[in-house]
From TrEMBL:
This is LisH domain and HEAT repeat-containing protein KIAA1468. One of its GO terms (biological process) is intracellular cholesterol transport. The gene is RELCH. The lineage of its organism: Eukaryota, Metazoa, Chordata, Craniata, Vertebrata. InterPro entries: ARM-like (IPR011989), ARM-type_fold (IPR016024), HEAT_type_2 (IPR021133), LisH (IPR006594), RELCH (IPR040362). Keywords: Coiled coil, Endosome, Golgi apparatus, Lipid transport, Repeat, Transport.
Length: 1090
């Protein structure tokens, strides 16, 4: 070892006296000499993580180190027969040499507690240079401030110091930690140690300044006061602070607490908890009582001192001593402030579980507590008096509003709330406080909305003032007592209190007791408004919960809330609970890993169980939950994108279009609220579109999960839905519409549409092969058409939708496949008038198609479209197309138009339009070319039975019933048994439906009953069981005709009776009118004659 170098790790104490060698004298290429321990921040230290210890970790030195100590100890003893004893100083030196810094720190602490302070450890840990953070990577072999032994020398460390001093916090404890979850606790321990050392440094500096000031007070000034006793020396700042401390101590000891609080407020620049804050490092004097008792017997000598902080003339002090000391003190104070700030951050980190809710989302979540302090009383309740004077002022403000109403026997009880709260907050007796809070919760028998808000506002003010412990001990029991109260308003107050107090409760209580209370109320309470408030409070709890084990409980609560029978509760679940729960799952990393997959698996299981009858309500429950998770899913994709680090606020950001996102169910489902602001979202959206269009999705894990896992699973589920279930098709269509609108047009065109198109295979070369293509008959077709292709309404989007529907119609028609998927698409799109023109364009394509199969399909689709289209479009577009098809060369096409004509007769009111349709139907029935068309007759009878009960009565009496009579009569002469049976079955269905209508006696006798008799003749030979029913129907109709004649005769008699009754009533009223209004005379009218 070179002479003159300082190595704090050497065993010999004598070497500490050597002059330190400057590290900048070493050449850049030099390496540490053999035997020299590397510095704590050298590359060698990084390569040996075992040499760094976490706080509170007790790891023994290596065997080699112990062996070295043993050898050294033996050598020091000169080789005796007894086992050598290693000195504590040697152990400390070896620990420091091998960089067991925290083990050495624990040894130092234990020695201090035992009263055996070791100078080597004291000097090492009191030197901030030993823990200096390096501001950059120094050249190899040249580490500023590192001495020969690896420690930072004081001189070099000071010269290399960066803007702020950091010591042990520069160590990367996470890298060497076996337990990453304890990182915050370990950093707190290290920082607290540094804070303690920094405060000791400040105290030492204060002592030095005080001593210097005491020695340099001008002697002439002291002589003036001694020579003239009548001149009283003015109180010094130091004396004032000492007396203030003693006075405050006296007030507290003698129960003058309010006076003590006021006194502390008036001296807010002094810390009355710490005597050292007075300013001098001197023993604390006796209290005021002892000073008073001893003032007559002994007179302590007067020490002439000067305040360390003020009143000292720096020119009287030697040289620049004060300047240097003050600068060092200022720098140390900055270190203390920085350490305190870091400790507060880490403590808040531990308490809030590192929740990453944006301030906008957090504010929107708390807004559901519905507390407002806009009124005078609200402002009184929201602030609690904290002193005697404040209480008096508050009483003065509230009593004038209470007294007049008390005198008038009115219970203005809300004015009592601030008084009760203030007293409960400041009262010293726990029993009295409990009684006051009991009064508060029972103040109003059935509090209305405004009164509950006042009570809640008071509870929040109380909680903010007294802290979490008293809230748990004093407020929560009041809530628990009223959880089963008979009045729903009181239970509602409990439910709302749990949410309002959530931010002020200990985290353990939030996730255990409060969560259990709300879960019980959600499952058991019968009042809808109470369960609604419970769901909102559960959402607020989810915003503060920090126990990952509660995830499964939160998921079950979500399903329980969604399955509630009350629409209010379900709406609150979507507005508050699901967004808050989703935000928590994002922090846990469970949104894509657990929450969404769990809902998808439940939907799949539901579809497997529902092959013979799907529970559509449960499907709606799960799918609506998925729909509410789309905004947080998109926000997660944006926040974990490759461009997120480049998202910075700029002035030239394009604002977001109003229609860019679907309307959110609540502010918590607004993507801008989840992200933090609309400006930040606008920046992310610009980068998002650019990334999709130009840079792709490589490495974008959250978006790749949506594309590669979520979309394929959803499309596979859609293919298993029963296409005839209008509700299911509608639900999934809405879901895909919201998904595509949220993720944007580029995503829809490049990621969603290709996956659907790959499955549907609608190209021309696949038409012949698609006879067995089952996917075209599934719900995939209507959901793709109505949920994906309708997301955007530009011209090219509409053309794509028209082309898809035309291709589906052509493919299904040519393949002789069922038309259910096409019908479902028309029903879903037809519900929106904006798509009527587009659907008519698609049908006109079918009307003029070269294939009769496609023309037949188009004719049948008109039946679905007529019901929702306005009569103008029916007259201008529908009827001309149907008349064109009714003259088609193919008889099958003409027959296909009959259901649509019938629907027009059922829904349209325009007389001219009805006449045109009536003429067309008459031509089908009366034209000789159709006389033997069995299929046409079947279709007409079926249509008459469907539309007859709802059609215009005149059309039914003059057209439908006479033609049914003719068809029944003609069927009696049918020789083909199978055709006769088909017609008879259809006639039976039609007459059964029409029998419920009001039919005039003439039509009944001339057409309805003769038609039934003809039908009975057929059924006697073909279906005897139907013949029995027909005979009963005929008897019933004949009875109606007979009763109608009797009823007319009875009706004429009742008219005569009513005339007699009217005459009697007129006479009675006229007699009443002749009487005066005298009560006695009016009573005489009803007396019996004697």
């Amino acid at each position: 070892m070179a002479s003159g170098s300082v190595n704090p790790f050497n065993v010999s104490d004598s070497e500490e006296e050597a002059e330190p060698q400057r590290s900048d004298e070493r050449s850049p290429g030099d390496e540490a000499p053999p035997g020299r321990s590397p510095g704590p921040f050298s590359p060698q230290a990084d390569q040996e993580p075992g040499t760094l210890l976490l706080p509170n970790s007790r790891i023994s030195p290596s065997a080699d180190s112990v062996q070295a100590l043993g050898i050294g100890g033996a050598a020091g003893l000169g080789g005796g027969g007894a086992e050598p004893r290693v000195s504590v100083d040697a152990i400390a030196a070896q620990l420091l040499r091998d960089q067991y810094i925290l083990t050495a720190l624990e040894l130092h602490t234990e020695l201090l507690e035992a009263g055996r302070e070791l100078p080597r450890l004291r000097d090492y840990f009191s030197n901030p240079g030993n823990f200096e953070r390096q501001s950059g990577t120094p050249p190899a072999g040249k580490e500023p401030g590192i001495g020969a032994g690896g420690a930072l020398s004081t001189e070099d460390a000071g010269g290399y110091r960066a803007g702020s001093i950091s010591t042990l916090d520069s160590l990367d404890f996470t890298r060497y930690s076996d337990d990453g979850n304890r990182e915050s606790d370990e950093r707190v321990a290290v920082l607290e140690f540094e804070l303690r050392k920094a405060k000791e440094t400040i105290q030492a500096l204060r002592t030095n300044l005080t001593q210097a000031a005491e020695c340099e007070i001008p002697s002439q000034e002291r002589k003036n006061y001694k020579s003239s006793p009548e001149i009283q020396e003015p109180i010094r700042p130091l004396e004032k602070r000492a007396l203030n401390f003693l006075v405050n101590e006296y007030l507290l000891k003698n129960e003058y607490k309010l006076s003590s609080i006021t006194f502390s407020d008036e001296n807010d620049d002094q810390d009355f908890e710490l005597w050292d804050d007075v300013g001098l490092n001197i023993p604390k004097p006796p209290d005021l009582l002892q000073l008073y008792r001893n003032c007559g017997s002994s007179h302590p000598s007067h020490r002439e001192t000067a305040d360390a902080a003020v009143g000292v003339d720096t020119s009287d002090l030697p040289g620049d001593y004060v300047t240097k000391e003050a600068a060092q003190k200022t720098e140390t104070i900055q270190v203390v402030q920085e350490l305190e700030y870091q400790i507060s951050l880490l403590n808040s980190e531990k308490q809030t579980k590192l929740q990453k809710l944006s301030p906008a989302f957090h504010q929107a979540l708390l807004s559901f507590c519905r507390m407002s302090a806009d009124s005078r009383l609200g402002s009184e309740v929201s602030r609690i008096a904290d002193s005697e004077e404040s209480v008096m002022l508050m009483l003065g403000r509230c009593l004038p509003h209470i007294v007049p109403n008390v005198l008038l026997a009115k219970r203005e009880v809300t004015e009592l709330i601030p008084l009760i709260l203030c007293t409960a907050c400041l009262h010293p007796e726990p029993k009295e406080r409990d009684q006051l809070l009991h009064i508060l919760f029972n103040l109003i028998k059935r509090p209305d909305d405004e009164q509950r808000q006042m009570i809640l506002m008071g509870c929040v003010a109380f909680a903010r003032h007294v802290g979490p412990t008293r809230v748990e001990v004093e407020l929560l029991p009041q809530c628990w007592e009223q959880i089963n109260h008979k009045y729903p308003e009181r239970r509602l107050l409990v439910a709302e209190s749990c949410g309002a107090l959530a931010p002020y409760l200990p985290k353990e209580i939030r996730s255990s007791l409060v969560l259990s209370m709300l879960q019980q109320m959600l499952a058991e309470d019968k009042a809808d408004m109470v369960r609604e408030a419970v769901v909102k409070s559960l959402g607020i709890i989810m915003g503060y919960i920090d126990d990952p084990d509660k995830y499964s409980q939160g998921f079950e609560l979500m399903l329980l809330s969604l399955g509630d029978l009350s629409e209010r509760v379900v709406a609150a679940t979507h507005q508050v609970f699901i967004p808050a729960f989703a935000a928590w799952t994002v922090e846990l990393g469970n949104l894509q890993a657990q929450l969404i997959p769990s809902l998808l698996s439940r939907i799949e299981k539901l579809l497997q169980q529902g092959e013979h009858g799907l529970d559509e309500h449960k499907l709606h429950t799960f799918l609506s939950a998925l729909q509410s998770l789309i905004p947080p899913l998109f926000a997660l994709v944006l926040q974990n994108a490759p461009f997120t680090s480049r998202a910075k606020l700029q002035s030239d950001i394009t604002p977001i279009e109003v229609t860019r996102f679907p309307r959110p169910a609540s502010p918590l489902q607004d993507v801008a609220t989840i992200i933090g602001s609309r400006e930040q979202l606008a920046i992310l959206l610009q980068l998002y579109e650019h990334q999709l269009q130009h840079e792709g999705t490589t490495g974008w894990e959250t978006l790749l999960w949506v594309v590669n896992q979520l979309l394929p699973q959803l499309i596979e589920i859609v293919g298993r839905i029963n296409v005839a279930s209008t509700t299911c098709v509608h639900e999934f269509s809405r879901f895909f519409w919201r998904l595509c609108r949220t993720f944007g047009k580029t995503f829809t065109n490049t990621k969603v549409k290709p996956q659907f198109q790959e499955i549907l295979r609608l190209s021309e070369e696949n038409v012949d092969a698609s006879a067995g293509n089952g996917i075209l008959t599934k719900a995939t077709v209507p959901i793709y058409a109505t949920g994906v292709l309708t997301c955007y309404n530009q011209e090219e989007d509409r053309k794509l939708l028209v082309g898809f529907l035309e291709d589906v119609m052509t493919t299904l028609s040519l393949s002789h496949a069922p038309l259910d998927s096409l019908k479902a698409s028309f029903v879903e799109l037809g519900a929106n008038p904006a798509y009527h023109e587009l659907l008519l364009t698609v049908l006109w394509y079918g009307v003029v198609h070269t294939s009769a199969l496609v023309r037949c399909t188009a004719a049948r689709m008109f039946e679905l479209l007529v019901k929702g289209v306005n009569e103008t479009l029916v007259a201008q577009r529908v009827v001309p197309a149907l008349i064109t098809l009714s003259s088609d060369p193919e008889i099958s096409v003409r027959i296909s138009t009959i259901p649509a004509f019938g629907t027009i007769m059922e829904t349209v009111t325009q007389r001219e339009l009805l006449e045109r349709v009536k003429m067309q139907l008459a031509s089908f029935l009366e034209d000789p070319q159709y006389q033997d068309q069995h299929s046409l007759h079947m279709e007409i009878i079926k249509t008459f039975g469907r539309v007859g009960p709802n059609a215009e009565p005149r059309f039914r009496d003059e057209f439908v019933l006479p033609h049914l009579h003719k068809l029944a009569l003609g069927n009696n002469m049918q020789t083909a048994e199978n055709k006769r049976m088909d017609i008879a079955s259809q006639l039976f269905e039609a007459y059964s439906a029409l029998s419920c209508c009001f039919i005039s006696e003439e039509i009944m006798l001339n057409h309805f009953l003769p038609g039934l008799r003809c039908l009975r003749t057929d059924m006697e030979h073909l279906s005897p069981e139907h013949e029995v029913i027909l005979s009963s129907m005929i008897k019933e109709c004949e009875l109606k005709v007979e009763n109608r004649g009797i009823g007319e005769a009875q009706g004429s008699m009742s008219i005569a009776a009513s005339l007699v009754g009217e005459d009697a009533k007129t006479k009675f009223l006229s007699k009443m009118g002749q009487l005066t209004t005298s009560g006695a005379m009016l009573a005489n009218v009803f007396q019996r004659k004697k």
